[in-house]
Description:
The chain has helices at residues 23-30, 57-64, 72-94, 98-115, 124-139, 146-160, 162-191. By secondary structure, it is mostly helical. It has a domain at 74-191. The longest helix has 30 residues, at 162-191. The relative contact order is 0.10.
Amino acid sequence: MEQPRTRSPHDGTRRGVPPPLPPQAARSAKAGRAGPPSARGGVPSRRPAAVRPPAPPIVQSVRRMPNPRLTGLGGGLFCGALMLVLGCLDQLLFGASLTVYGVLFLPVCVLTAVWIRRGDLLTAPIVVPIAFAVGLVPVAETGGGGVGGRLMGLFTALATQAGWLYGGTLIAGLIATVRKIRLMNRRAARNRPPV
Length: 195
């Protein structure tokens, strides 16, 4: 019994016709950016990748710093605990100087806004003023002692140091807003269909 003739498998190309280019090479060829064909069957040569210049030393040192990611609650606890510790240190070392406390508040706001994870960015400008009030407890003057005197001192300190409070909240809000915009731009670029 005679066997039917079978064909040899092939990839759908005819003899003498070069295989089709991958989609990336086809697009670059259409755009006129394809390099000269190499000696191996007309495949365009690849361009060397662009070499990035090294980053400035300050950028390299910032990249080496720790980069934790805090949840909203973790950011609030971090900020509140750190401001309470700084308030106690201000009381011990500087005699409850409200200006020193306000200056120390600004870097805490920056760290809190930078270290809060992407999903909880909106909590940064909310937890910062609460932490400012928590840290003021050891720094505020007690007007005559007791709970009423301590509350009066706390409200007075909040009123007189509102500039530091608003400034730190504004910094945290700006950093969180910039991070959120960058995140939205990345998502939009990822979801954009290729041209």
